[in-house]
Design goal:
two-stranded antiparallel sheet; 22 helices; 2 strands
Length: 508
């Protein structure tokens, strides 16, 4: 267990002007990219990771967390003003936010989204700070066999939850594990699949693979969709009534139970790998509508609908870090990118993280609390400015992002070979997305590949190659049993999709 002095020292490290500056910068960047449809915080984090290489771990990771948190707030702006969500999870916000804006109350809608987002995010951060250390202690009691079974269970859940096809999810995970095997064998350190390129001796660069598949492929896809006029015309109505430009405390307090329920839903779903903020937002919205005394008002500008969606999708951010910090298993793309930032700075996420880097982790918790407060402050000031952001031409934004990706990867990998790898995986990511294969599952499997291989070889050594001896490890047997149950359940649920899995068009 982390001692109290380490906790105080960690929070003391966080609350400095230097870290504050990076958290502010991260929140501003996150809200900016969230407000621009098509970019989003994930792409911004992917681009920013190489530029944090020269920073200390705490400000670097705090900056990325600020980008992630700010992006969810910014994503509500185009959802409300244009009915075009800046992030996928803001689609539920648009269902009541856009009708409210059409009634001449855009600022009321965006401010309600801001307040609900900060409320849900703060709730999940408190849960993260409370439960992560005890869970890490339990994780330390797991041996190689249990870790191997846990990874099998995680893959079974991820492949079923992400995407519409379990088969395609399994193929994406297998491809990720195959790419992770490129380079030196983690057990015997013999080269594999390097094809004469000594640059691959240490494996494919994580930054090149992640940025290529997440950022570059999305940029190419968005640029290919630009047709004709690239300007975005936004007409913002104003009733002239001051009450329509603010959210009163009475209106906020009337949504307290809706926000609490949304925060709980987002926290629970965020702690489960693979579900994500979009599912949490729609589940919270549907629950709020079904329990409302006036369900017919939903979809027509109800503040309860905005509160339900935003509190849930923002609560996912904090709870997503629970499996990351305690087990070393990323539950989302954002968490996978934060793991890559940890590794760039020589830190291995997992149960030993609290023991070896307790001061850093509690410094990160302090930075997350700061980011919530700053999200509220920056959002209050910047909401009017983000209205202007959504009208920026996509061609200019994506061209600049492409240049930043190339420069950042060349810096992180030390040359143009990393850029070449990035471009190759950008093409692979584009094709995978076009044919319905999950890039998220690939990235998570690619990251977990070496650890999966080591746990497999250690498990075989402990059992002397006899898999029947697994009955001596009841936790592993339970996890493998749950894996089988989850696969059967997802196959049953996705049966109609599996029959049409081969008919996915490029537009899908």
């Amino acid at each position: 267990m982390v001692d109290f002095a380490t906790i105080i020292a960690g929070f003391g490290d966080a609350f400095t002007l230097w870290n504050l500056a990076f958290v502010v910068f991260g929140v501003v960047v996150g809200q900016f990219v969230g407000a621009v449809p098509g970019i989003g915080p994930v792409m911004a984090m992917a681009i920013a990771i190489p530029f944090t290489f020269g920073l200390d771990p705490l400000p670097a990771i705090a900056f990325l967390v600020g980008v992630n948190k700010g992006g969810l707030v910014g994503g509500a702006v185009p959802a409300v003003l244009m009915n075009t969500p800046g992030t996928p999870d803001a689609a539920a916000t648009a269902m009541d936010g856009y009708p409210l804006a059409r009634q001449g109350k855009p600022l009321k809608a965006t401010k309600m989204a801001l307040f609900s987002s900060v409320t849900g995010d703060t709730f999940s951060d408190l849960v993260l700070i409370t439960v992560s250390a005890p869970l890490a202690i339990l994780a330390l009691r797991m041996g190689p066999v249990e870790v191997f079974a846990l990874m099998i269970f995680a893959f079974s859940v991820l492949t079923g939850l992400i995407g519409k096809s379990l088969i395609k999810g399994v193929i994406a995970a297998a491809f990720g594990l195959l790419c992770a095997s490129i380079g030196s064998d983690p057990e015997n350190y013999t080269p594999r699949l390097i094809f004469g390129y000594f640059e691959l001796f240490d494996g494919l660069p994580l930054a090149s693979v992640a940025i290529g598949m997440l950022a570059i492929s999305e940029i190419l896809r968005r640029l290919s969709q630009i047709r004709g006029d690239m300007k975005s015309a936004i007409e913002v109505k104003d009733t002239g009534n001051p009450e329509d430009r603010r959210v009163t405390f009475a209106e906020y307090w009337a949504c307290r139970f809706t926000m609490l329920r949304g925060a709980v839903i987002g926290t629970v779903l965020g702690a489960l790998p693979g579900i994500g903020s979009t599912a949490a937002a729609f589940m919270s919205y549907a629950t709020a509508k079904s329990t409302s005394k006036e369900p017919e008002t939903f979809g027509k500008g109800n503040l309860q609908g905005i509160a339900a969606a935003e509190s849930a999708n923002s609560a996912v951010v904090g709870s997503n870090l629970i499996p990351l910090l305690t087990l070393g298993i990323p539950g989302s793309v954002g968490a996978a990118l934060i793991i890559s930032a940890f590794m760039i700075h020589g830190i291995q996420p997992g149960p030993l993280l609290f023991q070896d880097q307790g001061r850093l982790i509690y410094g990160l918790f302090g930075a997350m609390i700061m980011a919530n407060v700053l999200n509220l402050w920056v959002g209050q000031i910047g909401l009017r400015f983000w209205v202007k952001v959504v009208s920026a031409p996509e061609s200019i934004i994506f061209s600049a992002a492409l240049l930043l990706c190339i420069v950042g990867v060349s810096m992180a990998t030390g040359g143009l070979f990393g850029v070449a790898v990035m471009l190759v995986f950008a093409g692979i990511g584009y094709l995978m997305t076009s044919f319905g294969y999950s890039v998220v599952i690939f990235i998570i499997a690619f990251f977990l590949g070496p650890r999966f291989e080591i746990s497999l070889s250690q498990s075989l050594a402990l059992m002397n190659g006899d898999w029947m001896r697994i009955i001596d490890y009841p936790i592993a047997v339970a996890l493998l049993g749950l894996s089988v149950v989850s696969v059967i359940w997802f196959l049953t649920r996705n049966a109609p999709d599996e029959t049409t899995a081969g008919t996915v068009s490029i537009e899908d």
